[in-house]
UniProtKB/TrEMBL annotation:
GTP 2 binds at residues 182-189, 229-233, 294-297. It comes from Limnobacter thiooxidans. GO terms for biological process: ribosome biogenesis. Keywords: GTP-binding, Nucleotide-binding, Repeat, Ribosome biogenesis. Belongs to the TRAFAC class TrmE-Era-EngA-EngB-Septin-like GTPase superfamily. EngA (Der) GTPase family. One of its GO terms (molecular function) is GTP binding. Gene3D superfamilies: 3.30.300.20, P-loop containing nucleotide triphosphate hydrolases. This is GTPase Der. CDD domains: EngA1 (cd01894), EngA2 (cd01895). Associates with the 50S ribosomal subunit. It comes from the Bacteria. GTPase that plays an essential role in the late steps of ribosome biogenesis.
Length: 441
């Protein structure tokens, strides 16, 4: 297990900026707006040969008793309990605040190693920036500028000296990256918490609670997964805040980064064009797909039949994907859904032998030849696999540019049936042979 460093502090003190610098990524959203980060956000950092996990947290508001800030504080406290070292970040420009004193008292009770980090100190001397913060009673403050990188290396040298030296665990097998996607407030975060068996991400009855794409490693039935809880995708005309626009971008990036996407639909609402648009993007990205119609326990029989008919009508282009009717809160249907996730992942990385593909193509031609174009008929010679995730089948022959789309779909269906490629898109590409004697001077 890699040691864990938690970044804790009031909202808008620069925790996400420091997270991005330590992980050398832009995974955490950064904007001049308090309360931007809401869930725990994990990343991998390295200082020389030492690797560690960095946890970016939402602002810790000790006085918040209810609402979204109370949930953020709950997540921050959980990150403190999981950590080996806490970097308590304060704002060097604002000076010490009453909330800083309350957070310092909480950290002392948590009995974790703490380094007090004074951020936003560019242009200040160390003694001037640190002077006011000795009164917090957490030792000598370290002054940095997370946005400029000043003092960050010295800080992390000190942090690494405090981290425990633990043997690395061998990761067994390939981790399956599973993105949970869908419109806002369909139950994505509740599904993640149900799979993990803990309140790992904020599940709050307010659309748009999740803004970052949160990556979480876990195991189920001795198989390793990485769950990706994504921000809900709204219609383009309803995305007003600049922060939410970045969340949409990160959701699309998370879909592209996943091996399998679980598209969640809300059984209490009609299937919308937006659901079909999200599904279309998943298909275009070539990701394997499992559909989960959530909140199924709240419907009567009439409504259930209506939703099933509507799903079949509006999402006919997803006939290769498995549909599951589930409840993330009860829960039920989760085991069958995860079985389909495993099957979709296996199909995405299936190895298709060239002899079997070629024989299948020949059988398809014998059963139904491609239509003529003029006096010529396309001839399919042989096929081989050109890629995985999604599987790509490349068919060679002559005059293949004349093959119509309906014949291409016929081949896709036969290949999918023969090799049991359920849950994954399949791409068939045609490459016509070039006649070396067909050259014009």
């Amino acid at each position: 297990m890699k040691p864990v460093i938690a970044l804790v502090g009031r909202p808008n003190v620069g925790k996400s900026t420091l997270f991005n610098r330590l992980t050398r990524t832009r995974d955490a959203l950064v904007a001049n707006q308090p309360g931007l980060t809401r869930d725990r956000h994990y990343g991998l950092g390295r200082m020389g040969p030492r690797e560690y996990l960095v946890v970016d947290t939402g602002g810790l508001e000790p006085v918040a008793k209810e609402g979204i800030y109370a949930e953020m504080a709950k997540q921050s406290r959980q990150a403190i309990l999981e950590s080996d070292l806490v970097l308590f970040i304060v704002d060097g420009r604002q000076g010490v605040t009453p909330h800083d004193h309350v957070i310092a008292a909480e950290l002392r009770k948590a009995k974790r190693d703490v380094i007090l980090v004074v951020n936003k100190t560019e242009g200040y001397t160390h003694s001037m920036a640190a002077a006011d913060f000795f009164e917090l009673g957490l030792g000598e403050p370290e002054t940095i500028s997370a946005s400029h990188g000043d003092g960050v290396r010295q800080l992390m040298d000190m942090a690494c000296e405090k981290l425990p030296v633990l043997p690395e665990d061998e990761e067994g097998g390939r981790r399956i990256k599973v993105a949970i996607a869908g419109r806002p407030n369909v139950g994505k975060s509740t599904m993640v918490n149900t799979l993990l068996g803990e309140e790992r991400v904020i599940a709050f009855d307010m659309p748009g609670t999740t803004r970052d794409s949160i990556y979480i490693d876990f195991e189920r039935n001795d198989r390793p997964y990485t769950l990706i809880d994504t921000a809900g995708l709204r219609k383009r005309g309803k995305v007003f805040e600049s922060v939410e626009k970045f969340s949409v971008i990160k959701t699309l990036q998370a879909i592209e980064d996943a091996n399998v996407v679980v598209l969640m639909l809300d059984a209490q609402q009609d299937i919308s064009d937006q659901d079909a648009s999200i599904a279309g993007f998943i298909v275009e990205a070539g990701r394997s797909l499992v559909l989960a119609v959530n909140k199924w326990d709240s419907l009567d029989d009439y409504r259930k039949e209506r939703i099933k008919a509507e799903v079949g009508r509006k999402l006919t282009f997803l006939n290769y994907a498995k549909f599951h009717y589930v409840s993330a809160t009860k829960p039920f249907g989760i085991a069958a859904m995860m079985k389909s996730v495993d099957e979709a992942h296996a199909a995405a990385f299936a190895k298709l032998s060239t002899p079997k593909l070629t024989r299948l193509i020949q059988e398809c031609v014998e059963h139904q030849q491609p239509p003529r174009k003029g006096i010529f008929r396309p001839k399919l010679r042989y096929a081989h696999q050109g890629g995985q995730n999604p599987p790509i089948v490349i068919v060679h022959g002559t005059a293949l540019d004349a093959i119509p789309d309906n014949y291409k779909r016929y081949l896709e269906t036969r290949i999918r049936e023969r090799f049991k490629l359920d849950g994954t898109p399949l791409r068939v590409e045609f490459r016509s042979n070039v006649n070396p004697f067909d050259k014009k001077d």
